[in-house]
Amino acid sequence: MAVHAHPDDESSKGAATYAYYRSLGADVMVLSCTGGERGSILNEAMAGHAMAERDLAGLRRREMQAAQRHLGVQHRWLGYEDSGMNDDGQVPANSFAAVPLDVSAEPVVRVIREFRPHVLITYDENGGYPHPDHIRCHDVSMEAYRAAADPARYPDAGAAWQIDKLYFDRIFNLERVDAMFLELSVTEPESPLLEPLGEAREWMKNYPKLATTHVPVGDFLEARDAALRSHASQVSPGSSFFFWPNDLIRQAWPYEDFQLVQSKVDTEMPESDLFAGVRDNS
Fold first, then answer.
1. Which residue, among 10, 7, 67, 73, has the nearest Cα to 37 in the 3D structure?
2. pTM surpassing 0.90?
3. pLDDT in tens, 10-23
4. In which residues is Zn(2+) bound (predicted)?
5. Which residues are annotated as a binding site for Zn(2+)?
6. Cβ atoms of 224 and 19 closer than 8 Å
């Protein structure tokens, strides 16, 4: 089960992993904490689109439905209102980041106890980037992870369930950028992609290497891209999400990466399977 702040986050942060595990027969649940109502239209081609202008929330629900079909996952809306990202750091009243944690964690606990996942994926304490909803998504996920296993908490939300493994998303990392740069330097030394990749290596050079788990997703990059393109209001055809050609990714770093932060089962590092240890004990 993966918990995300907005529709489109599931497609940019783990979509190939979800498609991979669906191909193996695993059940995959994606939770969207908010509807992305306060987002902007980030695709110039959507300018003047009637629904984008008058009902962005409704459009983003349709986009999420399309992405869900491409990935083959189950999906739930938690129903909270997008908090936006204001320069002053303030969030609107009753938006997701303003709702008390014990209130916003309850529906996540309810889904955990119903779906009974072995693995939970969320963001780190910085939210991946400092959007109030991403940070709150981390807080809510951690609180629900703990509370779902405690029968004394939220007793009306179903029978207690202990999740075996908890991961943070670490898909954008220096190891990946290094691998792309080195592969391209050898195979296409005149490629125009080398300059921006080199710049990315420089500003990421002090990033800590936190990923513990590298999921092989090379055969599912097109499913990821189809899901991303479904979110047309947020993802343009020229988006940086499509910066690296899929053939290069398959050759250099055909993985999506995660950090195991809590585990109730034994496993060995590095992992190539989010369910490592879980299957051995089943």
1. 7
2. yes
3. 999 999 999 999 99
4. 6, 9, 134
5. 6, 9, 134
6. yes
